[in-house]
């Protein structure tokens, strides 16, 4: 999975450029325009629509939804904006796709910026810009592929309330789809986090800590994306605007509740990931302590053996004095030295065992359990 770019800013206009300067991104996709227009009992759909078909659809139907995919042609965006009378400053924000989720109010339309997950199995984001007018919704996205298919099907088949409501309800449906796509992504991350938890607790390695840091980065990215949704939806619910009916604001309240749930999930997962990092560090420290304990025990056992071997390795002349290493003249002196070494080694091992140093303090834990 590619890591999300947390700190990249892709602003196209040069510093000091006039407000509303429109520069299409060089790497942007070629634009494609789709139109869905409907009323209570009918709808039309045009793929690859022209400017004239947009005008015609708006004249003949109660609600017109224009979806522009790809930002490779700033001129086409300007032509569509002229049909709906959109503010040029909002168009600049459409092309500068580093915006945070927000809502801006103009005389006869609202400008809403969303961050949409490109795919449920990824945390890559793209910007979706929505213009809401009295009888239209214009959505602009960076690339093909979105989470609006369910909304399109509801319009085509006349399911639910969408055909019987105005453009504001369609705008709510798009916002709700963008918010809800976060749940599958978080579910995927939760399953991955659960697998990492089993790995870290069982057998942690350097790859595990790398995956944990990547997940913490993903959660930070999601938190920075979801947090502004609360402010944006609060403004849409509480502002008195002719473009949003009270009934639609009630549905936006449900959307706001979803963002609260998302934030709770993200914060919980962030805490779990941070806790797993601490568990990993504790696990590594415990393994290091075990290794140091084994090495210390080995060194401690061999210390008296080394002393005995070095003692009897001293070159005193026995012909000078009978007290110079008398054991070297004994018939069983060699076996005496080996036996002394064995007694020291066995005695130390028995002492370590009795104090639980060889069994990971299992005896102490067993005694504590018995007391309970």
Write a structural description:
The protein has 372 residues and is of the alpha+beta class. It has ten helices and seven strands. It has helices spanning 51-60, 74-84, 88-95, 149-157, 167-180, 182-203, 206-238, 246-311, 333-354, 362-371; strands spanning 32-38, 43-47, 63-69, 102-105, 110-117, 125-132, 136-141. It has a seven-stranded mixed beta sheet, with helices on both faces. Helix 5 (167-180) runs parallel beside helix 8 (246-311), helix 6 (182-203) packs parallel to helix 8 (246-311) and helix 7 packs antiparallel against helix 8 (246-311). The mean pLDDT is 84.
- Element-level helix/strand string: EEHEHHEEEEHHHHHHH
Going by helix content, strand content and strand pairing, the class is alpha+beta
CATH fold call of the largest domain? Beta Polymerase, domain 2
Report the CATH C-level class of the largest domain.
Alpha Beta
> How many strands?
7
Percent of residues in helices: 55-70%
Oligomer: single chain
Number of helices: 10
Low-pLDDT sequence parts:
none
Largest sheet: 7 strands, mixed
| Beta-strand content bin | 5-15%
Number of spatially distinct domains: 2
**Largest sheet, spatial ordering of strands:** 2-1-3-7-6-5-4
Summed over residues and divided by their number, the pLDDT gives a mean of: 84
Computed Rg: 36 Å
CATH superfamily grouping of the largest domain: CorA soluble domain-like
* Global morphology: rod-shaped
**What is the architecture of the largest domain at the second tier of CATH?**
2-Layer Sandwich
Distance between the termini: 49 Å
């Amino acid at each position: 999975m590619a890591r999300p770019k947390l700190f990249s800013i892709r602003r196209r206009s040069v510093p000091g450029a006039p407000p509303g300067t429109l520069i299409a991104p060089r790497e942007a996709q070629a634009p494609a325009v789709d139109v869905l227009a409907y009323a209570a009992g009918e709808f039309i759909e045009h793929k690859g629509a022209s400017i004239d078909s947009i005008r015609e659809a708006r004249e003949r139907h109660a609600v017109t939804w224009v979806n522009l995919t790809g930002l490779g042609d700033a001129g086409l965006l300007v032509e569509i904006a002229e049909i709906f009378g959109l503010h040029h400053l909002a168009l600049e924000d459409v092309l500068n796709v580093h915006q945070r989720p927000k809502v801006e109010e103009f005389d006869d339309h609202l400008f809403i910026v969303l961050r949409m997950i490109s795919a449920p199995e990824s945390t890559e984001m793209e910007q979706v810009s929505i213009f809401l007018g009295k009888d239209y919704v214009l959505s602009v996205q960076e690339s093909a592929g979105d989470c609006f298919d369910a909304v399109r099907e509801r319009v085509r088949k006349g399911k639910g309330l969408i055909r019987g409501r105005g453009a504001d309800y369609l705008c709510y449906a798009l916002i709700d789809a963008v918010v809800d796509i976060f749940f599958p992504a978080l579910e995927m991350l939760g399953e991955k986090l659960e697998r990492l938890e089993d790995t870290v607790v069982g057998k942690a390695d350097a790859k595990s800590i790398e995956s944990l840091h990547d997940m913490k980065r993903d959660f930070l990215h999601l938190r920075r994306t979801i947090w502004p949704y609360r402010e944006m939806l609060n403004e849409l619910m509480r502002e008195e605007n002719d473009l949003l009916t009270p009934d639609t604001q009630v549905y936006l309240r449900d959307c706001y509740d979803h963002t609260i749930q998302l934030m709770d999930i993200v914060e919980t997962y962030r805490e779990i990931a941070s806790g797993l990092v601490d568990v990993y560090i504790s696990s590594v420290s415990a393994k290091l302590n075990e290794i140091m304990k084994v090495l210390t025990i080995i060194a401690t056992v061999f210390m008296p053996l080394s002393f005995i071997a070095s003692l009897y390795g001293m070159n005193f002349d026995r012909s000078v004095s009978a007290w110079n290493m008398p054991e070297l003249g004994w018939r069983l002196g060699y076996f005496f030295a080996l036996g002394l070494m064995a007694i020291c080694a066995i005695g130390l091992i028995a002492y370590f065992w009795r104090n639980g140093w060889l069994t990971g303090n299992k005896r102490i834990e067993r005694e504590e359990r018995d007391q309970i």
